[in-house]
């Protein structure tokens, strides 16, 4: 679309150029991507890249693009570069799985009389080769033919109009209209060489003002996120030279860090995957900056420099690994966390203290359970919670995670910030089949970690079939009184009607009535269930057969000594409940 606009003479906005000198340079600069690949980890051709490369050296004076980098990249790739993609379904590691292509213009496109409000007048495509197509209705010319055969893109590399048109004319087959084709050829030459489709602005402002202009100008078009802006600033503030003397890039380094964490055997088994947002927020937390992403880019530069020291400390990565391993040991795998930010204060505590995670961890358990089950981050806000936690972690003696102190400080904001028997009773009435991480925490603790809700291999199943509990006629045919039908529908997702089954167990259960499935277990037809007594014990289900019938569903869930009470008793043992002081 950009090249179509160029040939049609449509305005393409403005470029903002920062003219500066080596003496004033603090921010990094990057090369424009010439040969682009749409694939992570591509390594088959040295000159093909997914990310821009850092420039290690500068001339005495130079210009940096503050706004317009995407448009200039599109020009550069189309005019002088290439675009590489992987063949769908092909093996990533094979060089033959990739197609490297160049930008071509169909010389038989460019009709001026059609209504092209939104479509392309000039047809461009990335192709391996040009010339006349098989159908004879398209003739593809490489856009790079505008240039002489030179490796560098300089003013001297551009062919004159006469030389360019004549070189194309000599190659055109006699079967096409040369007049129409050459009109498009001239449009291409004029679009690149004569039309002033781009406004050009320059500034010689100071470094900090240039950064502000960069942020402000990029709020138009595809707006930079707070994460993008922070990454750009970190690259400027962090040390940019490696031990070997080459340039570094904060964005690439952080991506490599998150890939290592996501590939960690234990953490990946627990379903954890890590991205830039969590890593950056945790670094802000540890560096004493506000742990949030600011679109205005107003961070303390010294604190951003401090974050580099933390990031490059091996103890930081170790603290992240240890914190999430502890969380998993305590029943908080990925699906049992409302957000990885819940673990960030634990990362800070382990990073700043010499704490042995092999024993106890009761305070960490209490923090995780209380924060997730009471939705503290969502109700109070991540920034407030993290800043409060940071203060108390710093003030602690490092012997125990200060869960009670953090939660006490967060109280009084309309959110429950403790976990005791009364809170648990309320949760068992509130949390149901739709409750996400909170349900996963309760069910995982119900099964003492032997089965993990939201974890690969286990599925949350309704003991009495959910669909049938909403069918009034079906229920009444089985002896359910009409006045209970609505209660059944309203409470079919109650935690008292939920169990965790393996895949084969759930497949066997399907939509069967509970009494029918019990009979299958007794007949040895359910894979993985040893016997009926083992089933009753594992799932905290009453062995009273009368309660397994539809007329007794309410009694099964809520009755004295039945599943709701059994769940309560088990969770009082496995959750880290604490009685508030009088």
TrEMBL record:
Residues 2-234 form the GmrSD restriction endonucleases N-terminal domain. It comes from Halogeometricum rufum. Residues 421-518 form the GmrSD restriction endonucleases C-terminal domain. This is DUF262 domain-containing protein. InterPro entries: GmrSD_C (IPR011089), GmrSD_N (IPR004919). Pfam families: GmrSD_C (PF07510), GmrSD_N (PF03235). PANTHER family: DUF262 DOMAIN-CONTAINING PROTEIN (PTHR37292:SF2), VNG6097C (PTHR37292).
